[in-house]
């Protein structure tokens, strides 16, 4: 306020002060719906309370960026009368709390319902997080008692999983898979006569997914276990893909075929590329949809980091998310026919995968990212750059080796806990590939090594 008074004669400053004061006041009002939690939470929480909790660290910039969104979410859930309580906790000060929730990076967004802890890893937007809270806090499987409700739900969801039939082993399985995958998608159940006439079921009971204007049925012999089928069918056949979505697609075993375009500079060529990928996705659905996910991505930063060079835009690339491998067309892809030829080449193994996550690639990738960072430091702060080179110059390769080792062992650990999570004891899935999620600050301490510790949940 002192500042404000001193500069009173300057009108601009008065306006500025008023604006910032209003801003501060509004923050104060909305933040009233977010509770600051601490280690006593465990003792004071009522068993039936549902909590959406952000674990933050005071130094974490992504957490600060999330704060206004978090306060808005708190206010909005409250005004909607949602049963979800919103809180945040400084995970560096309340380490027991953070350990219990297995916080691996900041900000971590978790929902606690009964004794189940659910991990959110989608985009850190209000819509994304509110959708997650709504999905996970409600019933695991939602019944659709009428045709009208079925139509209603169909019109609101792009991808819809429905169990059709009465009690059965399949239904038990469906419910247990739903408990785990509710973080990603909604699950419904309906009686047979609720479905549209056009839907014909060979077998009964059945699990169907409605998407892309049609539906697919789960066939156990052909599709393997229900959880992996749901994981690979939970995306539209063609969609806009950002680094978060890509990261989630690590769970599907599909290859991701992408048009990389610059949306800030939408040339005719880039529109043509998107259309081309979308048409192949639609017209060749029967041929490729089991093996490929199609989409476009805005900007090439993420891909550049992966392939370690500047990818021209627009371009076509196929990614193997499960091993960081990628496929580039040997010749320019300009037409739908050329794209089909390329996709077919990848599918039949004629085109070889590049990249991957072997030791060699790992070294190269870290070197590339270091180079990019160092170049940035030098451009923005040459003195600091020079200082860092003196300090770290000699130790560079040792650091690089250490990072590689840490990265690999971390991935192995995650892979182990992923298997263990098949049983939906905690309802929480670990990221199958995670050194650092997009938009997440890495925690400096090492993670729990022993997956058995989770049993304590
Ligand atoms: C993608 O990566 C997985 C995991 O390493 C591997 O098993 C699979 O063969 C790869 N797919 C292709 C087409 O290279």
UniProtKB/TrEMBL annotation:
<keyword id="KW-1133">Transmembrane helix</keyword>
<dbReference type="GO" id="GO:0009986">
    <property type="term" value="C:cell surface"/>
</dbReference>
<dbReference type="InterPro" id="IPR036249">
    <property type="entry name" value="Thioredoxin-like_sf"/>
</dbReference>
<dbReference type="GO" id="GO:0003756">
    <property type="term" value="F:protein disulfide isomerase activity"/>
</dbReference>
<keyword id="KW-1015">Disulfide bond</keyword>
<comment type="similarity">
    <text>Belongs to the protein disulfide isomerase family.</text>
</comment>
<dbReference type="Pfam" id="PF13848">
    <property type="entry name" value="Thioredoxin_6"/>
</dbReference>
<protein>
    <recommendedName>
        <fullName>Protein disulfide-isomerase TMX3</fullName>
        <ecNumber>5.3.4.1</ecNumber>
    </recommendedName>
</protein>
<dbReference type="Pfam" id="PF00085">
    <property type="entry name" value="Thioredoxin"/>
</dbReference>
<feature type="region of interest" description="Disordered">
    <location>
        <begin position="415"/>
        <end position="457"/>
    </location>
</feature>
<feature type="signal peptide">
    <location>
        <begin position="1"/>
        <end position="32"/>
    </location>
</feature>
<dbReference type="InterPro" id="IPR017937">
    <property type="entry name" value="Thioredoxin_CS"/>
</dbReference>
<comment type="function">
    <text>Probable disulfide isomerase, which participates in the folding of proteins containing disulfide bonds. May act as a dithiol oxidase. Acts as a regulator of endoplasmic reticulum-mitochondria contact sites via its ability to regulate redox signals.</text>
</comment>
<dbReference type="InterPro" id="IPR013766">
    <property type="entry name" value="Thioredoxin_domain"/>
</dbReference>
<keyword id="KW-0472">Membrane</keyword>
<dbReference type="GO" id="GO:0005789">
    <property type="term" value="C:endoplasmic reticulum membrane"/>
</dbReference>
<keyword id="KW-0413">Isomerase</keyword>
<feature type="compositionally biased region" description="Basic and acidic residues">
    <location>
        <begin position="426"/>
        <end position="457"/>
    </location>
</feature>
<dbReference type="InterPro" id="IPR052250">
    <property type="entry name" value="PDI_TMX3"/>
</dbReference>
<keyword id="KW-0325">Glycoprotein</keyword>
<keyword id="KW-0676">Redox-active center</keyword>
<feature type="transmembrane region" description="Helical">
    <location>
        <begin position="383"/>
        <end position="407"/>
    </location>
</feature>
<keyword id="KW-0732">Signal</keyword>
<keyword id="KW-0812">Transmembrane</keyword>
<keyword id="KW-0256">Endoplasmic reticulum</keyword>
<feature type="domain" description="Thioredoxin">
    <location>
        <begin position="21"/>
        <end position="138"/>
    </location>
</feature>
């Amino acid at each position: 306020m002192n500042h404000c008074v001193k500069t009173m004669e300057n009108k601009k400053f008065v306006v500025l002060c008023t604006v910032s004061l209003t801003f501060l006041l509004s923050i104060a009002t909305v933040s009233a719906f977010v509770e600051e939690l601490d280690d006593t939470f465990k003792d004071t929480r009522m068993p039936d309370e549902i909590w959406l909790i952000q674990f933050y660290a005071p130094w974490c910039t992504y957490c600060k960026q999330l704060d206004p969104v978090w306060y808005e979410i708190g206010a909005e859930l409250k005004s909607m009368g949602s049963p979800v309580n919103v809180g945040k906790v400084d995970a560096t000060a309340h380490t027991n709390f953070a350990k219990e929730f297995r916080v691996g990076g900041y900000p971590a967004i978790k929902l606690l319902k009964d004794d189940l802890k659910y991990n959110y890893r989608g985009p850190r937007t209000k819509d994304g997080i509110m959708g997650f809270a709504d999905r996970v806090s409600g019933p695991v499987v939602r019944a659709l008692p009428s045709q009208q409700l079925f139509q209603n739900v169909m019109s609101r969801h792009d991808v819809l999983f429905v169990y059709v039939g009465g009690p059965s082993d399949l239904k038990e399985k469906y419910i247990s898979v739903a408990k785990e995958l509710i973080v990603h998608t909604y699950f419904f159940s309906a009686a047979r006569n609720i479905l549209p006439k056009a839907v014909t079921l060979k077998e009964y009971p059945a699990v169907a997914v409605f998407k892309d204007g049609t539906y697919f049925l789960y066939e156990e012999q052909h599709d393997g276990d229900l959880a992996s089928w749901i994981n690979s069918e939970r995306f539209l056949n063609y969609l806009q893909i950002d680094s978060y979505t890509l990261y989630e697609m690590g769970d599907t075993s599909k290859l991701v075929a992408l048009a990389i375009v610059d949306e800030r500079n939408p040339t005719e060529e880039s529109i043509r590329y998107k259309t081309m990928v979308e048409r192949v996705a639609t017209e060749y659905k029967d041929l490729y949809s089991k093996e490929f996910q199609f989409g476009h991505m805005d900007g090439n930063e993420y891909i550049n980091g992966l392939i370690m060079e500047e990818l021209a835009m627009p371009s076509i690339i196929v990614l193997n998310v499960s091993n960081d491998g990628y496929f580039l067309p040997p010749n320019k892809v300009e037409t739908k026919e050329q794209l089909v030829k390329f996709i077919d080449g990848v599918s039949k193994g004629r085109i070889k995968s590049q990249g991957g996550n072997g030791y060699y690639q790992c070294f190269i990738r870290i070197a590339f990212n270091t180079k990019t960072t160092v170049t940035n430091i030098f451009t923005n702060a040459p003195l600091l750059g020079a200082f860092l080179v003196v300090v770290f110059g000699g130790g560079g390769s040792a650091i690089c080796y250490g990072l590689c080792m840490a990265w690999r062992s971390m991935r192995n650990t995650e892979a182990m806990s992923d298997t263990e999570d098949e049983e939906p004891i905690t309802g929480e899935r670990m990221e199958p590939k995670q050194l650092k999620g997009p938009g997440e600050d890495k925690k400096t301490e090492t993670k729990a090594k022993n997956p058995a510790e989770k049993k304590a949940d």
